[in-house]
Amino acid sequence: MRSRRQMKITRDGLARRTSASALAALAAIVGSLALSTAAHATPARSGSSFSTSASDLVAPAIVGTGEVSGTVTAAASSAPLAGIEVCAIEDNAEAFTQCATTGVSGEYVVSGLPQAEYVVEFYSLSGTYATQYYNGKSSIAASTKVAVSEGALTSGVDAAMALAGEITGEVTAKSEGTPIEDIKVCLLGSGSETVLQCTSTKANGEYTLTRLPEGEYDVEFYSPGGKYATQFYSEKSSFAGANKVFVGEGSVKGGIDAAMALAGQITGEVTAQDGGTPLEDIKVCAFATSGEATQCTATKADGEYTLTRLPEAEYVVEFFSYTGEYVTQYFDKESSFAEANKVRVTGGEVASGVDAAMVKTGTITGVVTEAGGGKTLEGIKVCAHEIDYEESPSVCASTNTNGEYSILRLPQGEYIVQFYSPSAKYVTQYYDDKASEAEADEVGVQSGKTTADVDAALEPTVGLVPPHDEEKGPPSISGSPAVGQVLACLKGTWSGNPTPKFRYRWLRDGVSIPTATGETYTVETVDQGHRLECEVTANNGVYSLATGSFNVSARSAPVEVPVAAPASPGPAPTVNTSTATPTTSTTPTGSTTSGTGTTGTGGVANFTGARAPAPRIAGKIKSKSGAVLVPLSCAAKTGSCQTVTIRLTVTEKLTAGKVTGLLAKANTRTVEVGRLTVTLKAGRSETVKVTLNSWGRKLLAAHGGLPTDVELIAGTITLKGQNVLVTVAAKVKR
């Protein structure tokens, strides 16, 4: 059994597990270190996911009494497998590890485990089978953790091992084609930059990655000495552009080769602008302008840095202070990636003198409290946005339990500071106690200094309460409800904090009027005889339990639009009820408020005075199966004609307040029995079908035929063109 040790994944020196003899040697060095080892020496791993050195080993303070047991079999045959090393790796930073090896029965017991959760790894010492993790996973990250208790056995932690796949290839120098020794070849999980396994090329440039589960992988080629540019299969400069390599169970994927190009380098020195002092631990990164390759390093104590393994390309070089003491900048003294000067890197050469003089950042600090009570507020987001640089991102911080915040890494300049409650419990505010960014006071920041006392006292938000009675001032309609007149929707008096934003809509008989969404509305002819209302919807960003949303609505009292008397009544149309074709009046009747309607020859009607271009009735209006067919055409050259509404009406006779017939000359009322809104594109002709509404269908069923007026309405202009007798659809004899 193996003893406790730390395990880590690394590109350099990866792929070994410490043997029992190494542990014994370490035990001799540290004296009375208690290590439990197997009776036989286990071969050192080649190509494993872990690397362990003597410096990695940590002596256990105590030995646990928990155990893990199970059986390992071959996935294909279910036969027990001997010689499989099973390791329980504690799922924490110390990664305490104990191992055991299966016998001929395929069974194992890992003992001496402290109480914890463990990753259990199954590793083929012969390399015949793919490494796996409980429960049947190919990586530590995906594995199912096994809980172990002191003095208890966790059994049934089994594994069915699949035959291992391999990746092989050859690495050569791109310029000469000669083999390269000691190039690190690393296997990465497909879609993840996590290193799963690494190996090194031999003197002939060849390599083999073993014990691979079936799946897709990315392969990286890396020069430890930095002579060659890092690349990914196949000859890609970034992980994102890499070609995937699929490995089947028990198969060898050969020909995964690499021709390594000489790497370029970027060197320079980073100093403080104030005094020229060399700066240590400044992060320097090279970003390929193509967006592919990225390399980073940190400056040494003398302020110097070297970026290695760079493919030939143009780069943007960024200088970043880990501590936030200095302003991020881009070569050469630019404040943004877009403005940076490009650095050209050539293979095998050094681009030197890429220096930076760093400017100290400024800081904004303050305290956020609740207005009135002075209670400090935790979790308020405070953001500073530089005024002179619209594209620069905001720099933000959150208040602590004392309501304090510090916004770091600010270049010298003027800022707008916003105070925002992520929970929406407080009204957003701008410094100094302003409701909007436009009103905000500017906050000056100087290099290397702190601008303090940028405080805020936030008002709690209050849900909206809509106006609901005369005292509160409910929404109301102002203006004369007559055709052509403009009505205004007065929103009334609302309470809530912050002040809400309002939306409007107008309704006819309780149904929304399309496009009528402003504070005002112009009464149309079609509104005659109907009731109009306006609805106000408010939103102040506070969730309403009453409505289940952030919106709260209130409506005005309705107003009646009277029916105007005809300006010039013509003779009433007559109907021959013995035929399906009605006699059409030669003079259209109706009222227009701006412009007039005229009827052309052959029943072709146009608008006079309408907003051009307007559609036209392009033929005889007909009735079919209880509906009206209206032929329309649009003479516009481009775009579309004005939207029109087709309205169907009938005239009912009233006797003692009751409907007793149709088309009487006196004591009558006009009833709408159908409506359709149409927009025709330029140059189009179309026959549109207008169906009867529920009232129209009732009248048709009662009378067997409806002498119907057809109106076209464009804005406030109405054309009464033709009459048509709507009849019930004829029954088909079978």
What is the 3D form? extended
| Protein structure class | mainly beta
Percent helix, as a range, is: under 10%
How many discrete structural domains?
6
Query: What gap, in angstroms, lies between the N and C termini?
Result: 92 Å
Report the CATH architecture of the largest domain: Sandwich
CATH class of the largest domain: Mainly Beta
Q: Radius of gyration, Cα only, in angstroms?
A: 42 Å
User: The biggest beta sheet, please?
Assistant: 5 strands, antiparallel
| Tally of individual helices | 2
Beta-strand segment tally? 57
Mean pLDDT: 80
Uncertain segments: 1-62, 567-612, 656-660
Beta-strand percent range: 35-45%
Any idea of the CATH topology of the largest domain? Answer: Immunoglobulin-like
Question: For this entry, what is the oligomeric state of its chains?
Answer: single chain
CATH superfamily of the largest domain: Carboxypeptidase-like, regulatory domain
Secondary-structure blueprint of this entry?
Blueprint: H1 20-30, E1 66-74, E2 84-90, E3 97-101, E4 107-113, E5 116-124, E6 132-133, E7 146-148, E8 153-154, E9 159-161, E10 165-173, E11 184-189, E12 195-200, E13 206-212, E14 215-222, E15 231-232, E16 245-247, E17 252-253, E18 258-260, E19 264-272, E20 282-288, E21 294-298, E22 304-310, E23 313-321, E24 329-330, E25 343-345, E26 350-351, E27 356-358, E28 362-370, E29 381-386, E30 395-398, E31 404-410, E32 413-420, E33 429-430, E34 443-445, E35 450-451, E36 456-458, E37 462-465, E38 476-478, E39 486-490, E40 495-497, E41 501-508, E42 511-512, E43 520-522, E44 531-544, E45 549-555, E46 559-560, E47 596-599, E48 605-608, E49 616-617, E50 622-624, E51 627-633, E52 644-655, E53 658-662, E54 668-678, E55 685-691, H2 694-703, E56 705-714, E57 717-727
Parallel strand pairs: 1-8, 1-9, 10-17, 10-18, 19-26, 19-27, 28-35, 28-36
Antiparallel strand pairs: 1-4, 2-3, 2-5, 5-6, 5-7, 10-13, 11-12, 11-14, 14-15, 14-16, 19-22, 20-21, 20-23, 23-24, 23-25, 28-31, 29-30, 29-32, 32-33, 32-34, 37-40, 38-39, 39-43, 41-42, 41-44, 44-45, 44-46, 47-48, 49-51, 50-51, 51-55, 52-53, 52-54, 52-56, 56-57
